[in-house]
Amino acid sequence: MFDLIIRNANLPDGREGIDIGIIGDRIAAVTRKIEASAQEEIDATGRLVSPPFVDPHFHMDATLSLGLPRMNRSGTLIEGIALWGELRPTLTREALVERALRYCDLAVSQGLLYIRSHVDVTDPRLVTVEALLEVREKVAAYLDLQLVAFPQDGYYRSPGAVDALNRALDMGVDIVGGIPHFERTMSDGAASVEALCRIAAERGLPVDMHCDETDDPMSRHIETLAAQTIRFGLQGRVAGSHLTSMHSMDNYYVSKLIPLMAEARINVIPNPLINIMLQGRHDTYPKRRGLTRVRELMEAGLNVAFGHDCVMDPWYSMGSADMLEVGHMAIHVAQMAGIEDKKKIFDALTANSARTMGLAGYGIEKDCNADLVILQARDPLEALRLKPNRLAVIRRGKVIARTPARVSELRIDGRPASVDGTEYAPSFGC
User: Fold this and answer.
1) Separation CA 94–CA 79 (nearest Å)
2) pTM score, two decimals?
3) Domain Amidohydrolase: where (predicted)?
4) Can you tell me the distance from the alpha carbon of 79 to that of 85, in angstroms, rounded to the nearest whole number?
5) For the purposes of burial, counting CB atoms within 10 Å of the CB of 291, is it exposed (0-12), middle (13-18) or buried (19 or more)?
6) DSSP for residue 331
7) What is the pLDDT of residue 373?
């Protein structure tokens, strides 16, 4: 007897007509036909069943604060940072918790059950840390939240940040963060990378740095991060987020840089929505896209995972907690429109991001956690095209969110009574 069986599912790896049997909080069987009954059954009717979406780069302390204390009129990164600096002294634990919990509700509805959030530790009150630690505990039953100690204004540039970061880690923050390109000089940036990697090695923690989020091709802190990763034996435990300067770097230099990153097993986290919005602001035309070299990094064997970064905050007035929106943008900006390209993009929203976050028990195989999403789409390619409704979101074997299928009623003589966008998928196999 199973607790739950999902029947007739299509899986991201191309398997079709699969049944998934769940006992308790684990997947107990994944096979073409389960000859057994269950307390509850869901017929996926040939729709895609995926592991949950994973966001390895987010700012939950700022989310849903759009308009506080005022709008970002220019829409630039610099004004966003200035706005956050104005808002930060007014932050309260209660307001931070409320906004973060509301965002987690939205995330769950979108099948997003794993998030890594950077937490600004610049304010010596560390109210952001207190709030997000409380949120992490409150949502643990339905969403996994990792926290990064992030010195938003610079590890050395901001007075008190060195002490505040260590205090945040002592309080229970999971990961060491940094922002070397925001230090006052290139040498200070390099020194911050070394210091932060040393802290991570001594504490046995991962590293996740905002790195080279700039159009300046001479911002090369990712090279230092890769070298220090090897020096401190942190291979596979370090992530470089954004890396937008790689978009503008000399190709010969990049031909040496990418192998170094591969040797260090750096996890790469581009953020397509925010990168295409904020980069290239000093350009007239031609205007740079700003997104890092996604295709080349994937082809070199690096683990590339996409982040949402921001939702309705001082930096980004849009966003919906939908990781398929992130992937949809990546397809366009990275010009990865081929069938295999799109499969890789979908992996960057799921399996690759899970690898970046070091998630255990993630996937759709026997003994994995029973965390699943049923989408109103046939396969990953159609999911990325349509950004479809999440018909059911399952956490540890329990359905925690449902959304009806999106079907439009037509009232046109001689035409069908309804339109389901998923029926427009091409007939060829993927």
Assistant:
1) 26
2) 0.97
3) 40-400
4) 10
5) buried
6) H
7) 99
Tell me, what's the pLDDT at 428?
Answer: 57
DSSP-derived secondary structure for 188-223: HHHHHHHHHHHHHHHHT--EEEEE--SS-TT--HHH
Q: Is 242 within 8 Å of 270 (Cβ atoms)?
A: yes
Kindly state the tokens that stand for 172. 């229970």
pLDDT at 429: 53
Q: Enumerate domains of the chain plus CATH numbers.
A: 2-51+363-424 (2.30.40.10), 53-356 (3.20.20.140)
CB 149 within 8 A of CB 158: no
In the predicted model, residues of the chain with pLDDT beneath 50 are none
pLDDT of residue 50: 98
Closest CA to 222 of 253, 184, 201: 253
Query: Would you say 61 and 76 are in contact if contact means Cβ atoms under 8 Å apart?
Result: no
Distance CA 29, CA 331 (A): 33
pLDDT digits (tens, 9 = 90+) for 258-289: 999 999 999 999 999 999 999 999 999 999 99
User: Which of 115, 114, 195, 92 has the alpha carbon at shortest distance from 151?
Assistant: 195
Q: 161-171 and 127-139 are packed helices; what angle lies between their axes, rounded to 10 degrees?
A: 20
- What is the CA 247 to chain-centroid distance, rounded? 20
Cα–Cα distance between 385 and 351 in angstroms, integer? 19
On the CB side of 409, how many CA atoms lie within 13 Å of its CA?
1
Length of the chain: 430
Whole-number Å distance between alpha carbons of 389 and 354: 22
* 150's tokens: 């992030």
Given the residues 35, 134, 137, 213, select the one marked as catalytic: 213
Written as one string, the DSSP assignment of 95-113 is HHHHHHHHHHHHHHHTTEE
Please say if 183 is a catalytic residue. Answer: no
> Using the 8-state DSSP alphabet, how is residue 48 labeled?
B
Q: What DSSP letter does each residue of 106-152 carry, written as one string?
A: HHHHTTEEEEEEEEE--STT-HHHHHHHHHHHHHTTT-EEEEEEE-T
φ/ψ of residue 197, rounded to 5: -65, -35
Determine the pLDDT at residue 426.
81
